[in-house]
């Protein structure tokens, strides 16, 4: 299989896989209100937790992570070079944020981001998730925990991999996730971002 064709094929598949909304599908199957029409209107695990409960949120969380993890693992199995793997991970995230099946209006990408990182380097992925857990335990603000973790992830990946391609792709992914959290960042700056204990991001 031609090298460039392989990268395009796997990146395209990653985008299509990423475009499936675990939140929307889970809520529909479980008879829960469409997450795009309630709460923060975001099809993600946190919003599903608010109105659909823990079970639906957990399914959404792991489903969104798998959307990032599986395409990267497949690309790795087919021995794509780092640049190819980086593009596959990036397109999986783009699929989640701009899903072709839902009018290109998707989620914020945190869980899918973690899935991609776990696929690229499981140790870096676990460290990033651990940072989220520690910050969340201390500050009780989900969005801030995610932003701190995602800011640190490219730095940690560079330390472990020394790969310009992988680190650059993850840095771009971090910028995308930060952009999707612009309203949360505004709320954080205003001191109005609700804490996890109150059920909000």
**Count of spatially separate domains:** 1
Rounded to the nearest angstrom, the distance between the terminal CA atoms is 44 Å
**Which class of secondary structure composition applies to the elements?**
mainly alpha
Q: In angstroms, what is the radius of gyration?
A: 16 Å
DSSP summary: helix tally: 10
The percent range for helix content is: over 70%
Biggest beta sheet attributes: none
Rounded mean pLDDT is 93
Q: Strand fraction band? A: under 5%
Number of strands: 0
- Overall geometry: globular
Question: What is the N-to-C order of secondary-structure elements (H for helix, E for strand)?
Answer: HHHHHHHHHH
Stretches where pLDDT is under 50 for at least 5 consecutive residues are none
Q: How would you concisely characterize the structure shown here?
A:
This protein has 201 residues and is mainly alpha-helical. Helices cover 73% and strands 0% of the residues.
Describe it for me?
The structure is a single chain. The chain is an all-alpha fold and 201 residues long. It has one domain. Helices cover 73% and strands 0% of the residues. It is built from ten helices and no strands. The protein has helices at 3-18, 22-29, 45-52, 54-77, 82-97, 110-120, 122-139, 142-161, 164-180, 182-190. Helix 6 (110-120) packs antiparallel against helix 9 (164-180) and helix 7 (122-139) runs antiparallel to helix 8. The chain is globular.
Question: Which secondary structure elements does this structure contain, and how are they paired or packed?
Answer:
Blueprint: H1 3-18, H2 22-29, H3 45-52, H4 54-77, H5 82-97, H6 110-120, H7 122-139, H8 142-161, H9 164-180, H10 182-190
Helix pairs in contact: 1-4, 1-5, 2-4, 3-4, 4-5, 4-6, 5-6, 5-9, 6-7, 6-9, 7-8, 8-9
